[in-house]
Amino acid sequence: MCKKATLTDLINTHVNEKIPVMADGTLLIKGVPRPEFYILHEHLELKKKLGSGAFGEVFVGSWKKSDAETLDVAVKKLKGMMHKKEKNEFVKEAKLMRRFDHKNVVKVYGVAPQEEPMMIILEFASGGSLQSKLQNTPDINNDRLLNYCKDGARGMCYLAGRQVIHRDIAARNCLLGKNDELKISDFGLSVADRSLVKLDKLKNMPVKWLSPETLSKGEFSQKSDVWSFGVLMWEIFTRCKTNPYPNDTNQEARIKIISGNHPLKAPEGTPVIAVKVMELCFIKETKDRPEFEGVLKLLSPSEKPPPKADNFETYAT
Which residues are annotated as a binding site? Predict the structure, then answer.
């Protein structure tokens, strides 16, 4: 039996030395190339743990991209074991997300699916979490806060143009780049290539960030993402001092959200344009709620929205 330290070494040995891979003498003539977005566990080194959530733990790490290049990355270790169908769906979605390329969306480099636990390899955002920045910098000015909102709207506009429903937009899922730009992150709940998703159960979902139609009918869409973006703006201008609906239980908040009569009120001192956008995001009827292009246009009137992917089916392959 041929033994080598790594799978790559093993394959190369079988190919180069013509060592049979089966007892019947079967030879490996040519190995099938590994897809670019498949990253080997052996090429990853996990360092400092950054945090953990419902879907896994996140570490600062390094990725040996080639013999000549090593990148600092963020590595998300997923919790639990995945069945074959789930793994296939996960890899398919990661392949799609790897194509995203926008300054306000965290870059996905690939996945490490060949061993447990599975890992997602992401761009390392050196500015850390938006939530921590806001909590630790209480004197940050409104201009900077408004820029975070513009960054977030721009990133979500880009994702919406690729038919992505994020489903978990919140300050805890936003990161900051080296130039203090906001980046939409954490696609653990995202769904690509679907205009409407229905869930029968909302277990472990962040109730206080969810839209009325999500809580009442289990429906997620880009319009439900717009509602959650309004909650993100509320978090930004409260500087993440508390969670939304701070004096309410999840059940009490759920009743208020579904009623449509008690949307979150912008904190005192919030710029007028931000108040207006939040109010539009919190419109109960989805048909009257703006798209992300409309949100970006209000926050940054002279800016052109990111171009859409014209043919998503082609784009996604």
Answer: 77
pTM: 0.82
Catalytic residue among 101, 143, 151, 168: 168
pLDDT in tens, 92-102: 767 777 888 99
Q: Which residues of 61-90 are buried (b: 16+ CB within 10 A; e: fewer)?
A: bbbeeeeeeeeebbbbbbeeebeeeeeeeb
Q: Is 168 a catalytic residue?
A: yes
Which residues fall in the annotated binding site for ATP? 77
CB 96 within 8 A of CB 316: yes
Cα separation values, 286 from 205, 214, 278, 283, 314, Å: 20, 11, 14, 7, 29
pLDDT tens per residue across span 201-233: 555 678 999 999 999 998 889 999 999 999 999
* Candidates 2.60.120.280, 2.60.120.10, 1.10.1740.10, 1.10.510.10; CATH matching 128-316: 1.10.510.10
